[in-house]
Fold this protein.
Amino acid sequence: MRQYHPHRPPTRVDLSDNTSLWGPPPSVRRTLATLSDAQLSRYPTPYADALTAALATHHATSPERVVTGCGSDDVLDSAIRACCDAGGSIGVAVPTFSVIPSFAAVNDVELREVELRRDGTVRADDLLASGAGLYYLCSPNNPTGTCVELDELRALLSKTDAIVLLDEAYADFAEHDAMSLLDEFDTLVIVRTLSKAFGLAGLRVGYGLGQPDVVAGIAISRGPYKVGGIAEAVAIGVLEHDLDWVRDRIAEVRALRDELTTRLVDHGLRVITSEANFVAVLVDDATKVRDQLLAAGVLARAYSSLPVFGDLVRITIGPRDQLDEAFELLIGSVR
């Protein structure tokens, strides 16, 4: 195995990692200024009790149905370990989040890949044919930005007793999510993050929602003290004071995303319709396009030889002036 090394050289405009380019919410600086000595010098509660309660309130559920972690990837890793035996298998619709193969490998789990359809959707029967002991889906999917259809997700959950791990890191930007299915299916675990729409990627706060017995198993697998006291305090402050700010940024991202998509399509580029905070553009040589943009000071994420889609360049949605510059460079690079 290799360490994870995203291609992120220093650059003037970074549109590569899908985090918030509007900075953190307003309450963050205020919270940091009020931290006590004990919050810095003592351990937090082992399982971030106060944050767990705040997230439960945010989602109108009980704390027993919430588990936190050091980013959503920590929750995903812990969920795979808790819900799939070593030597088992995980069914995955590809292409998807690039770290999942590493999580499968370190947990001694076989990866059984099923290709997405050309429109970015996946069929329940295709996944079920893999006969996996656990299923992972990302919706909206990274790097395509496409969503799992709720009818297909319901069909999958109805036809298997295996845990279905649904990664909704980008769901804040989408038209729908799967939260309504949590009460209907005991085997559904939804994983979320405060790294994207909430602008807290540097603090690494993720969480999962599911049935209490499943969540308890994930928490045990995760281990204690994974959310630091500073991160917990800041996250609670945002949940209590900044939801309007978050909603405004989400609306701005959606509008800019749709506008950028229209402009690219109007200029003859092949764009995957996205419901996330990024746009994926299909190109002949992703590395070449990325390097041309980088030479002008703009960084995008390049994917080469993906299943189904081939090469694509993924562009994070940021403020209009940054997108305007990326648009002009991208149009020039593919002519």
Summary: Residues 113 and 221 are 25 Å apart (CA to CA).
